[in-house]
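PROTOCOL LOG
Step 1. Enter all chains and additional molecules of the complex.
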Amino acid sequence: MLHVLIIGGGGTGGALAHDLTLRGFRVTLVEQGGLMSGTSGRHHGLLHSGARYALHDVAVARECYRENQILRWLTPQAIEPNDGLFVALGDEDMDHWDRFLRRCRAAGIPVREIGPARALALEPELTRGIKGAVQVPDATMDAWRLPLHFFATAQANGASILTFKRVERIVRRNGCVTGAEVEDLRSGRTRMLSADLVVNAAGPWAGKVAALAGIDVPVRPGPGVMVSVSGRRCNMVINRLHPAGEGDILVPQRNLTIIGTTIWLADDPDQVRHPAGHLEKLKALGARLMPELAGAPVHAVWSASRPLLNEADMGDPMRTSRGFACIDHQERDGLEGMISLIGGKATTLRAMAEEAADMVCRKSGHAAACTTTTTPLLPYRRMMQSAEDWI
Amino acid sequence: MSVQTIDFRILRFKPGRIDPPQYQRFPVAKAPMTTVLDGLEEIRLTQDPTLMYRHCCHHASCGTCACTINGTPALACTTRIADLQTDTVTLEPLAHLPCLGDLAVDMRPFFKEMDPGWANIRHNEETDKNRIPQGIDHLMRLENCIECGCCTTVCPLMPGAEGFMGPAVLSAVHNEIRNRPANREKLLQKAADPHGAPMCRRHLACSRVCPSKVYPARHIADLQRGIAGRTGREQAIKGKDPEL
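Step 2. Run joint prediction.
Step 3. Record the structure below.
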């Protein structure tokens, strides 16, 4: 049985571990901290319908919608499927209305036009004087429990999921990656994990992992700040209907409302402190959608690094593609035995895993089709109850 | 401007290496919004990369970062250092759970009595403030309980009263009765176990520490009433028909 070592215990790594075990591979996954301790857990929890990307990237929008529908079926216990509203605040937003509808429809996203009165009846805390809203199948996800379903199922199917294991070195022999040396943060011992293939699924840390193999990957950390305020201000996800910008998403979840997000480009995915002024900016921008947010008590402020596909001209980072790429380092760098999975977003975790697993199959000559769209997942609590050696 | 710092005093444990556990101090930069989790991240990223603790969402939705903060179980991500009003922040792993390393504990005992299939999502009633959008069957909510373990570790019956199910499991049983009424009898029977709701002594510590407003003690009280009603009904039925 071919052995695949996955580096990175976020949503993508979990979905890939699941996909590969279903296709008959032996899988080991290592994560430097706890599961989802990087970017996956820290996002705002918006299960995209794709509408947010409709105006500037129909392909990503279409992919989000498809995955949104699949995840609703696979992980219903981790999703509040209450839809979302794209709200036009003024005439400048109305200028985008027709094109927004057209592009959503082109991406296959169902849209329902709603008048201002109905929108305010649905979401009474929206600002008065809105021009209209479009209902789309956005949803709120539990960013910890949704990916945990994939880990639980992968582990039950034989994958070895190892947390608090830091990759110290990627071992190369004669132009071929043969495994990795991994330090166990608990015992302090380093051990060699041999593998037929190594997949770098470290999200914005993918550059650091690739550097251990002496290669570069086109990933750029794009951190953003999020703010949660106490009190649930809406049932549905609220987006401003305009080209995606900062502070124009409100994601309700349990008893909180999350205002997302800002963006800048960084060299290091690890943020010790987020820059000053972002909290105030987010509250002010959020208040344009819901005035009460201006005075709402702040519950938490945090930042997370998006794993942006690094293109030649990053320009406006908000316009950067949220698509993903699967890189075969044999083709790109002449290094056999290693793949990097770069970019993407939480909503497309399963699709990213499918593409990476397809590549693993091609490279290893092991023909097996993807079955993750139709294979039910185990409940997430199974992961927390498992007697395996993960922690 | 000089940066204000505060000492984190962390109970370190690595089996066979820092064993028995011992406290270690780390200075952490302190700003008005700095949380205990921010401090842990700063220590891991700038002082000791081997520090073990769990964290995920950073806004009290996942429940992974619970630990004992100045003697009380709480979430590291929403506990602000300034609010603690102490010179030192003392951090220990959650009590009564096996420590895996530093602040990371084995949560298996916490989840042992929970059925993995119990719902994590529930219907929310339509009200004037909660209108159901067209095309949606029900407004849905993720359960408030984030399974962090704070309630269970603060309960004075844990772990002294051998086998007490604990407030988290009993709250989950009660939620499940609401979510799946068809299973009510079976679930009430589970709650009525001598190690279940009858063992609770209404200390209410669970409700005080819950970071997610679950108020487990209320759920347990409701279960106790449900159990009493069920027993009363059984006795009434038995009184009428001795054959039953």
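Step 4. Note key features.
Chain A touches chain B through 62 residues (CB under 8 Å).
Residues 58-74 of chain A form the longest helix (17 residues).
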